[in-house]
């Protein structure tokens, strides 16, 4: 986790909010550093994490996690982390006939399927175990990323249904958190992606949007992060609060600064 | 990623069976060293695979793409387990050349090849690979090629374009004789004995789907299913995924798939916008990447993305690939006559570089890259380098110039370069030429189209023919 981002979001692993849906979104840049941040954040907060990693392999997250101070292998061994590796499972599903339904069963189906097996997997992974083992604080679902599901043939409605079921179970029933990453296609006309993004933006409590700079590539400022808090539950709420920072990604951390205040410029 | 322990980065050793035989003294093929005898020991001996080296950033195993210039832009090479997607240029000239360089590099390094194509027999593709250049006779020929580009005053500080002095220069020739990437002569064919000594598998689509097998309806087209099964078969049987632990010498599998997505593969993604099999290609890429991640293989795919009707699909494909390089050739476009792109054959766009096992990636600072293909050398250069050579001819040093910035003449490129084009204030130069002392005229460089008359008389009589591109002085 990045301490500067924790300060910006006003959270620490000890006193993070529960029951929230966080949407991570990237446009014209790579927002995967946010996924690494939240993964290490919730592992340090002693939560039970179910990570659906569809785009990279386990060792990728493991190596980056070690730079951020968490050990994914050990977390998986002691049961804190349930890791679904999409790439490896796709090979298994495709080449071997499966007897029992696999979470990513839709890869084999000819017509657009649904994500019910995946939801069953998530619910199974995060349900509280009564045998009183090492008590994890609350469950967290992390998905990287949802746009892959769209490009593999699922409809935006199927993905929205899946998130709705997950929210109902994880956020409301189990008082946990859900964090998802969606790519924003920007000026490319992708209707399904826009439907998904708008639908999720409407439901989420916190939106973190990593954008590339409007003027193009820069060596010292890698992008701009927009943080948007939405509090739909409070009726007397202040307006949705929004902050914008620019960031530079380094080897082990990310540094944030106000717009135009990059150390390279000052 | 497949975790392979490597030692120091030495990439030169190859089996003696692959030696060229013609010039045996100074070649890039060395005899197998004493490491071979060490494989029988049971100790924790680190094994190095030929043709690979660890990345300096995160120790990941890299192979060469066959083009040292492209390796440099990709951060040292292509990581094992990743997919390199090449968006083809319009007439598929340079993308097939890159494809062939990749395969030729595999043969030279002794890797196993898997060539898949729907329109050309893999055996024919292998016959047309370029011949590798060996150390002794290539060095002096390179010097002839680069001679025209060397300016003797390349070390003189630039007065006008001084910001560009700070950017690193791109090397355009072989700098050392140690061979991670090799150079190829595009005009000669690869020697037959090299092909015969190499191990390769071919997948020619019309042969493979002639039999009608019963396959359950899946949303991948039949050709893709067969190709995936073929690849998985090779990986499993030859132990690239570590399933045969008794194999002594590990090797890399280089997969090359040509024109993926074209209608010859049975895919209609290039024909209609919302076809039946609109997700066939993305599913194929996903499963392929899953196969690559769990084995010691690397894949190059050329894809005619300019034919794909649905632009959102291109974004999906980019997200599902690791490295994406786009080629744009100038043949037939109006850029062919643009003086800025005078010596180049096209532009190369590095659209995506992966961040593997890392938060950061090795993105190059230069974004406007052009390539040119001489007979023996495929060079990639910053496009402004050409302009800067002309700049030294138009604005000779030793004069003071008053400059006015004009709008950029280039349609694209990043904003930081767009204010670069300048023109003279006509009157001021006439004064300046009388005030400034005449300096030594420059040697003739460049194409010779611009006459170098670096004396005050150039400006004095107001005739501007010697310096094209400038405003005319009123008499």
Automatic annotation (TrEMBL), chain A:
GO terms for cellular component: cytoplasm; elongator holoenzyme complex; nucleus. Its main location: cytoplasm. Gene3D superfamilies: P-loop containing nucleotide triphosphate hydrolases. Keywords: Cytoplasm, Nucleus, tRNA processing. One of its GO terms (biological process) is tRNA wobble uridine modification. Component of the elongator complex which is required for multiple tRNA modifications, including mcm5U (5-methoxycarbonylmethyl uridine), mcm5s2U (5-methoxycarbonylmethyl-2-thiouridine), and ncm5U (5-carbamoylmethyl uridine). The elongator complex catalyzes formation of carboxymethyluridine in the wobble base at position 34 in tRNAs. Involved in cell migration. Component of the elongator complex which consists of ELP1, ELP2, ELP3, ELP4, ELP5 and ELP6. Belongs to the ELP6 family. This is Elongator complex protein 6. The gene is ELP6.
Automatic annotation (TrEMBL), chain B:
GO terms for cellular component: cytoplasm; elongator holoenzyme complex; transcription elongation factor complex. Residues 13-24 have a biased composition (Low complexity). GO terms for biological process: tRNA wobble uridine modification. Signal peptide: none annotated. InterPro entries: Elongator_complex_protein_4 (IPR008728), P-loop_NTPase (IPR027417). CDD domains: Elp4. Keywords: Cytoplasm, Nucleus, tRNA processing. It comes from the Eukaryota. It is found in: Cytoplasm; Nucleus. Residues 1-47 are annotated as: Disordered. Gene3D superfamilies: P-loop containing nucleotide triphosphate hydrolases (3.40.50.300). Pathway: tRNA modification; 5-methoxycarbonylmethyl-2-thiouridine-tRNA biosynthesis. Pfam families: PAXNEB. Belongs to the ELP4 family. Component of the elongator complex which consists of ELP1, ELP2, ELP3, ELP4, ELP5 and ELP6. Component of the elongator complex which is required for multiple tRNA modifications, including mcm5U (5-methoxycarbonylmethyl uridine), mcm5s2U (5-methoxycarbonylmethyl-2-thiouridine), and ncm5U (5-carbamoylmethyl uridine). The elongator complex catalyzes the formation of carboxymethyluridine in the wobble base at position 34 in tRNAs. This is Elongator complex protein 4. It comes from Sapajus apella (Brown-capped capuchin). The lineage of its organism: Eukaryota, Metazoa, Chordata, Craniata, Vertebrata. The gene is ELP4.
């Amino acid at each position: 986790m990045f301490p500067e981002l924790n300060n910006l979001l006003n959270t620490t692993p000890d006193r993070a909010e529960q029951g929230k849906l966080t949407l991570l979104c990237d446009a014209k840049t790579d927002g995967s550093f946010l996924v690494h941040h939240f993964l290490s954040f919730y592992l340090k907060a002693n939560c039970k994490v179910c990570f659906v990693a569809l785009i990279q392999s386990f060792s990728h997250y493991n190596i980056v996690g070690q730079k951020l101070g968490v050990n994914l292998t050990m977390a998986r061994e002691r049961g804190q982390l349930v890791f679904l590796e999409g790439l490896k499972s796709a090979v298994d599903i495709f080449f071997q006939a499966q007897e029992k339904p696999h979470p990513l069963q839709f890869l084999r189906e000819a017509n657009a399927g649904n994500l019910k097996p995946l939801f069953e997997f998530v619910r199974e992974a995060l349900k509280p175990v009564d045998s009183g083992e090492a008590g994890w604080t609350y469950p967290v679902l992390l998905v990287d990323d949802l746009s892959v599901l769209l490009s593999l043939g699922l409809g935006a409605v199927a993905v929205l249904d899946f998130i709705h079921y997950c929210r109902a179970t994880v956020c409301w029933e189990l008082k946990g958190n859900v964090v998802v990453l969606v790519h924003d296609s920007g000026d490319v006309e992708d209707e399904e992606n826009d439907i998904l993004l708008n639908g999720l933006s409407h439901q989420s409590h916190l939106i973190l949007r990593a954008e590339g700079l409007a003027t193009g590539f820069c060596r010292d400022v890698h992008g701009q992060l927009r943080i948007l808090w939405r509090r739909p539950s409070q009726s007397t709420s202040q307006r949705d609060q929004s902050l914008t920072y620019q960031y530079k990604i380094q080897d082990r951390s990310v540094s944030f600064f106000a717009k135009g205040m990059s150390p390279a410029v000052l | 990623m497949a975790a392979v322990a490597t030692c120091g980065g030495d990439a030169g050793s190859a089996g003696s069976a692959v030696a060229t035989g013609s010039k045996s003294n100074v070649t890039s093929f060395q005899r197998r060293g004493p490491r071979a005898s060490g494989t029988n020991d049971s100790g924790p001996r680190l094994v190095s695979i030929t043709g690979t080296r660890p990345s300096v950033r995160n120790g990941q195993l890299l192979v060469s793409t066959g083009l040292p210039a492209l390796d440099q832009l990709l951060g040292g090479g292509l990581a094992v387990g990743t997919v390199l997607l090449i968006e083809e240029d319009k007439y598929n000239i340079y993308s097939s050349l890159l494809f062939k360089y990749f395969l030729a590099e595999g043969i030279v390094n002794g890797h196993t090849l898997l060539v898949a194509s729907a329109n050309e027999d893999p055996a024919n593709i292998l016959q047309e690979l370029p011949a590798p250049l060996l150390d002794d006779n290539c060095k002096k020929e390179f010097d002839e090629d680069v001679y025209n580009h060397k300016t003797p005053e390349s070390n003189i500080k630039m007065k006008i374009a001084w910001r560009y002095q700070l950017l690193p220069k791109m090397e355009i020739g072989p700098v050392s004789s140690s061979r991670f990437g090799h150079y190829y002569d595009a005009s000669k064919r690869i020697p037959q004995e090299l092909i015969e000594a190499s191990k390769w598998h071919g997948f020619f689509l019309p042969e493979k789907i002639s039999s009608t097998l019963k396959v359950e309806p899946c949303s991948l087209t039949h050709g893709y299913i067969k190709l995936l099964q073929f690849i998985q078969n090779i990986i499993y049987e030859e132990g690239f995924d570590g399933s045969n632990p008794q194999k002594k010498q590990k090797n890399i599998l280089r997969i090359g798939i040509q024109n993926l997505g074209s209608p010859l593969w049975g895919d209609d993604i290039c024909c209609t916008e919302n076809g039946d099999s609109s997700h066939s290609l993305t599913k194929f890429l996903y499963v392929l990447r899953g196969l690559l991640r769990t084995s010691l293989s690397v894949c190059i795919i050329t894809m005619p993305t300019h034919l794909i009707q649905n632009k959102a699909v291109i974004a999906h494909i980019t997200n599902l690939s690791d490295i994406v390089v786009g080629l744009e050739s100038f043949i037939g476009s109006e850029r062919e006559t643009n003086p800025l792109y005078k010596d180049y054959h096209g532009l190369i766009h590095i659209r995506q570089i992966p961040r593997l096992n890392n938060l950061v990636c090795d993105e190059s600072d230069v974004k406007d890259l052009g390539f040119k293909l001489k007979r023996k050398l495929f060079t990639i250069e910053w496009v402004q380098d050409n302009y800067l050579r002309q700049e030294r001819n138009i604005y000779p040093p030793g004069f003071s110039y008053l400059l006015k910035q004009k709008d950029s003449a280039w349609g694209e490129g990043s904003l930081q370069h767009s204010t670069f084009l300048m023109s003279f204030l006509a009157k001021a130069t006439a004064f300046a030429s009388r005030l400034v002392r005449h300096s030594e005229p420059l040697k003739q460089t460049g194409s010779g189209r611009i006459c170098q008359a670096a004396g005050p008389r150039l400006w004095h009589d107001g005739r501007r023919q010697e310096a094209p591109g400038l405003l005319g002085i009123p008499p």
